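Researcher: Re-running this chain for the archive, since the previous output was lost when a drive failed. Same request as before.
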Amino acid sequence: MIYFTLAECTYSATALLRRIDNTPNADETARIVESVDNLLDPLRAAWEAHCRSRGLGSGALRITSGFRSARLNAAVGGSPTSAHCCGYAFDLVPVNGRKAAFKAFCRGFLADRPFDQLIAEREDAAGVPAWIHLGYKSPRGGQRRQLLSMREGRYVPMR
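Model: Regenerated structure tokens:
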């Protein structure tokens, strides 16, 4: 783990507010580390180089939702089968605010890499997401390589 810490990957304001223990067990911690080492850190390094070469500002990424215990996942209304509960999914926003550029970058970055899901969450009419959901593996096993957008409460193929 180069760019992200375990604390960032497990932090939740909701968990703190509701006093929910969001500490991953050993298997969940191993999956978080696997996801960061194989997907998030390489993405972060490539995004930083991309931003630097184009004058887009900081290439830092903020995890807005990472690992969620089952209790926390229920508290935030997450799917019972969410990869967040396994340590295989993270919601990200670029610190520089360039969400549309980050979405396009992620799509290209993942073209020849293993991943489960890239979801542009709560896209507006212009296709700008509120955040990017990035899943490394499915809780059911495997990597589906899904490119989706969440628009008006529905998942649709990403444009």
